[in-house]
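Postdoc handover notes: sequence design on the structure in folder B. Input tokens:
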């Protein structure tokens, strides 16, 4: 079963809420779909709220993060994960993605993510 996605097209960035069961395939398909949707609507900045259930292994997080960096080169991503059981895994993924050249930051709240991204946008 794939994620359920809700897109909002906001001034300067796309807001995305994803929900559903976690799997490597679901996650990879999400990131590919996000790139297609961003390209179609001319967005390169994103706030993503992770409301998925389940945890990927560290190896799968690494593999997925390398793919995210490849797919989203040139994009800016504010990623929200309020769940304690997956936050550390996503923090590891943040390190990998940034190490590959994508600007991404992990947050626990939507408000913090939006504040950061709007600051990035205002700086140009």
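Designed sequence:
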């Amino acid at each position: 079963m794939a994620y359920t996605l809700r897109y909002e097209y906001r001034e300067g960035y796309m807001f995305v809420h994803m929900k559903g069961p976690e799997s490597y395939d679901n996650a990879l398909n999400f990131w590919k779909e996000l790139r297609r949707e961003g390209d179609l609507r001319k967005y390169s900045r994103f706030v993503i709220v992770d409301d998925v259930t389940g945890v990927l292994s560290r190896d799968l997080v690494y593999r997925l993060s390398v793919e995210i960096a490849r797919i989203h080169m040139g994009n800016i991503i504010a990623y929200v994960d309020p769940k304690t059981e997956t936050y550390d895994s996503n923090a590891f993924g943040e390190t990998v993605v940034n190490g590959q050249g994508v600007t991404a930051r992990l947050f626990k709240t939507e408000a913090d993510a939006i504040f950061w991204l709007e600051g990035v946008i205002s700086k140009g």
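Context for whoever picks this up: Residues 43 and 66 are 21 Å apart (CA to CA). Don't rerun without checking with the PI first.
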